[in-house]
Write a structure and sequence with these properties.
Number of strands: 3
Strand order of the largest sheet: 1-3-2
Structural class: mainly alpha
Strand content: 5-15%
Radius of gyration: 20 Å
Length: about 150
Amino acid sequence: MVRNVEKFQKRMRAIPLRVRLEVIKQLEKEADKVVKLMRAMAPKDTGAGAESIGWTWGDAPKGAITVGKVADNEYDRIAIKIYAGGGDQFYMKFQEFGTKRQKKNSLKSQEFGTVDMPANPFFFPVWRAEKRRVKANLRSAVRRGIKKAQTKG
């Protein structure tokens, strides 16, 4: 007969909850860091645009630009949305990408601006610079959650 099966099963059932709690804490920390950097890089005429940069567990404000898209309720995901603009600060996407109609899918003109209004990118460059660090820290959070579940079982 196998000993301590119940104890082992209890530890294994605790892993998803511990991992979820660690990832949630780490996501909030990472989102705060990324938002702080984006606000530092954003153009500041009045400061309202920079203050419109934030993160949420729910939907971003209408008209805001966001980092990536995650399907809602797919596999019970834990997801935040980092956003800029929306509401009265709808113009933040023009700051990021510039103005003037371009060829469809012209990423070069979006990133570097146009004749009418030069781009002043602050949103996606920060995300591109931070993405690798954020992913590494989230992997560490998963490992921490598993270790805590195994030790505190």
